[in-house]
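hey so u asked for the seq, here:
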Amino acid sequence: MKFTLRKATLEDREAIQQLISDSARGLSKQDYTSTQIEAALETVFGFDTDLVIDKTYIVAESNGQIIGCGGWSKRKTLFGGDQYPTRDSAQLDPAVDPAKIRAFFVHPQFARKGIARAILMACENEAKASGFNSLELMATLPGVKLYKACGYEGESVLEYELQPGVKLPLVPMKKQLV
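ran it, structure tokens below
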């Protein structure tokens, strides 16, 4: 399948937000309940303005449609879109801190066609070129296989409370850059 990668812009906000919703609802059904998915869309899954302003968020396009997105960050926030209340936009120190891999979503119609892997490789290369020696991320259960296949390590599942009584299982993962 043919697609191109480019930096996301603020004008992409609506298309990315729709992609995030479609991806979460379409690709997470085997791992999460609809209550968990909807709560995640309200609280943590969403557009992250910092990533776009920092020019570290990448979209994949095919025939003029955004079909995938993901990025890396030099900020402390590990996950969560603009609506996430406990974001920390402080800058990381590449000499001691790992860069963050953030907000990967692929449209269900285009899943498992190498889109997320291509975006992830671009993010890893950019983070390395910016002086980072390692990466970390908070994987959703549907993303764990991809990240493991790309050399990330992490097994323990933690339960993140989205709302009272609604928890989302996530897996913290790390990778050393060579």
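The mean pLDDT is 94. Strands lie at 4-7, 57-62, 65-73, 99-106, 134-140, 158-163, 166-176.
lmk if thats what u needed
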